[in-house]
Amino acid sequence: MADALPVTPQEEAGLPDKRRVAASFSRAAASYDGVASLQREVGEALLARLPHEAPACWVDLGCGTGYFTRALAARFPHASGVAVDLAEGMLRHARPLGGATQFIAGDAEHLPLRNSMCDLVFTSLALQWCGDLAAVLAEARRVLKPGGVFAFTSLCVGTLQELRDSWQAVDGFVHVNRFRRFDDYQQQCGESGLRLLHLNTETRTLYFPDVRSLTHELKALGAHNVNPGRPGGLTGRARLRALAAAYERLREPAGLPASYRVVYGVLQKES
């Protein structure tokens, strides 16, 4: 069911509203790790892309439940760490599990961090929720020391395309979160003032026995639809049956496919 928050200027501009994003992920804090296998795989792949030099201080931006906060602490045991997330519920979950010196509520587009304070900003599968990617890149550049690294993963167009196409066969509402084009990541990273070390995209596909299993997982992740144009109220049974019938045409031997177009990027602040 859609919440009762009024339409905001961000939504009028076609961007997800940060309050809805924060509230959605706060509600999902307890269920997130139980269904986040893809998120862990993607984050581990980003860890493998990091430069070998150990940072003295790192930031886990969009730390969520703190899984990679703890992974960064284990990888860099002599460094200090700061975990930042927009969702207070995620921070309440992550804080008792440790891994960082500080857990801070903050917006990636307006970081509550001082200039040139860290050697690494690590963020995995958070930037797709940020309306202003250029602002995120500018903030990363600001808080990094010269020579510091900004490493990220995100999602681009093509993500959940099967679900999007199946809904399009049912009605004209926005049922699936919108994602940037890979070209947008290329352009904005190139214009960020950071040196681009690595940028690529790959497709990862999950399989589900039925549509309900997919939508349940998206809700448990906090990643269900928060975009403007989404339908209000409950989705009727007739539409859900029509969705299931449309999606069924895409079934493969392994099940119903759900594709994720993952973007990997590593940038460096010039010395």
Automatic annotation (TrEMBL):
Native organism is Pseudomonas duriflava
Superkingdom, taxonomy of origin: Bacteria
* UniProt entry keywords in alphabetical sequence: Biotin biosynthesis, Methyltransferase, S-adenosyl-L-methionine, Transferase
What is the annotated role of this protein in its UniProt record? Answer: Converts the free carboxyl group of a malonyl-thioester to its methyl ester by transfer of a methyl group from S-adenosyl-L-methionine (SAM). It allows to synthesize pimeloyl-ACP via the fatty acid synthetic pathway.
Catalysis performed (reactions): malonyl-[ACP] + S-adenosyl-L-methionine = malonyl-[ACP] methyl ester + S-adenosyl-L-homocysteine
Q: What is its EC number?
A: 2.1.1.197
Q: Which GO terms describe its molecular function?
A: carboxyl-O-methyltransferase activity; malonyl-CoA methyltransferase activity; S-adenosylmethionine-dependent methyltransferase activity
**According to the UniProt record, what class of enzyme is this?**
transferase
Domain Methyltransferase type, first and last residues per copy:
59-152
Q: Which GO terms describe its biological process?
A: biotin biosynthetic process; methylation
The pathway that the record names for this protein is:
Cofactor biosynthesis; biotin biosynthesis
Q: Which family does it belong to?
A: Belongs to the methyltransferase superfamily.
Which PANTHER family does the entry link to?
ARGININE-HYDROXYLASE NDUFAF5, MITOCHONDRIAL (PTHR13090)
Q: Which CDD domains match?
A: AdoMet_MTases
Task: Tell me which Pfam families the record gives.
Answer: Methyltransf_11
Q: What is this protein called?
A: Malonyl-[acyl-carrier protein] O-methyltransferase
